[in-house]
Amino acid sequence: MGNHQSLISFAQLKHTLIILMADNAKIILEGNEYELPVFTGSEGEKAIDISDLRAKTGYITLDIGYKNTGATTSGITFLDGEEGILRHRGYSIEDLAAKASFLEVAYLLLNGELPTRQQFDDFDNAIREHTLVNEGLEGMFKAFPTGSHPMGQLNSMISALGLFYPKSLNPNRPEDAINRTVLRLLAKMPTICAMIYKKRSGHPIIYPKNNLDYVSNYLNMTFAQVTMDHYQPDPVIVDAMNKLLILHADHEQNCSASTVRMVGSSQSNLYSSIAAGIAALWGPLHGGANQEVLEMLELIRQDGGDVQKWVNKAKDKNDNFRLMGFGHRVYKNFDPRAKIIKKTCDDVLNKLGVHDPVLEIAKKLEETALTDPYFVERKLYPNVDFYSGIIYRAIGFPTDFFTVLFALGRLPGWISQWQEMRREKQPIARPRQIYTGEVPRNFKFMQDR
Ligand code: CMC
What we know:
Layout: E1 6-9, E2 16-20, E3 24-29, E4 32-40, E5 46-48, H1 53-57, E6 59-62, E7 77-80, E8 85-88, E9 91-92, H2 93-99, H3 102-111, H4 117-129, H5 140-143, H6 150-163, H7 175-200, H8 214-223, H9 235-247, H10 255-265, H11 270-282, H12 289-302, H13 307-315, H14 336-352, H15 357-370, H16 373-377, H17 385-395, H18 402-423
Parallel strand pairs: 1-6
Antiparallel strand pairs: 2-3, 3-4, 4-5, 7-8, 8-9
Helix pairs in contact: 2-9, 3-18, 4-7, 6-7, 6-11, 7-8, 7-18, 9-14, 9-18, 10-11, 10-18, 11-18, 12-15, 12-17, 14-17
This protein binds carboxymethyl coenzyme *A.
Carboxymethyl coenzyme *A binds at residues 251, 254, 285-287, 289, 314, 322-329, 378, 380, 383-385.
């Protein structure tokens, strides 16, 4: 094959045969047989290790959108899309959402084990020490145009935060220095999210109160006013926020986590890697869907609430409309996070005595779609974003702020993914391509074209 690059498209196997055996796979290309190792994960998932394929055969694999590509091995999160299973470090998402606090889950993701009481107190206290941000960071708000999207602001603020800690821009520092950066990020993210919220409403910033727990402190910085003598976040809201943050904490190699790993693989610093993750999350097909869902539900309500009409639009291939909050790259049965959120949504709205007409529309939409052959055949189910926005709205968050809350929850996951990649000394991520452009041709001067 020489240096020629050829391609195996698994969708169109023609002169290629792959035989999967217990511990290796055989591939026959143009009459030649090659053996490739098979890698088996701790939950029995199998992968053909193709890292040597090009060197041995001249072929690469083609998988646009990485639909069938394992970019890494990982010990953080297990997800079985067929069975609707999500586990962090072996613990089910159902257990974690019911029994743990968000900071406990953050500790678990970062360290691999649930903390003892002493370990938790040390972690929690260390985070409390770092909640303030440099006053200089507030100057950023002068530069943002009025009405800038909070995710754009968050992305810039996290990137800028790193500039206040120039030494931390070197990711090759000893583990305890990296851990300090991790604590800083975890501690300052709620402060920054709350600053963005306050600035968008033109209100003075509320400083962190370090006698409060992580979630209560965040709610206090967001909803307390300097004019108030006292603000006490409703325990129902604290509990719901804890649950929502846990449900968003990690989701293995999704678009933003892969982005964080990819950016970090060039030895870019942790702040920039997280900022890149925030940018990836913002997109409407990923975390940005939570904003889109609520806007869609509102649109349907204002249009008279004819759910079937919008389901028909989502099915129409000549119509760009998609049912936001529906479908998932990996879940093909149900999204376990969506199940928990739907129940939490009912509980929270009941406890707060909130009647939101879009909840009825959401339920009708889910019912209609789940009995429609289009959605059944394509295995499209409500995902984590379908009901979360209704809870955020009941708590008092504006629609364009929802994705910021997703980012706040996802932060420990992104950091854990980045740390795993760095600790394993993974190489720079650099996919290949199959070139489909022009073959060599001669340059012509402008007057000759
Ligand atoms: N509404 C209507 N049709 C859909 C939808 C939808 N929400 N999602 C997928 N389809 C159709 C799609 O048109 C395609 O049909 P066909 O086979 O006839 O061409 C088929 O289902 C497969 O879709 P796909 O786009 O190839 O699937 P994907 O794995 O590339 O995309 C997805 C997954 C989540 C981007 C997609 O389902 C989607 O756009 N959903 C709406 C946006 C959304 O809710 N995103 C949040 C995802 S969960 C939060 C997180 O990011 O973690």
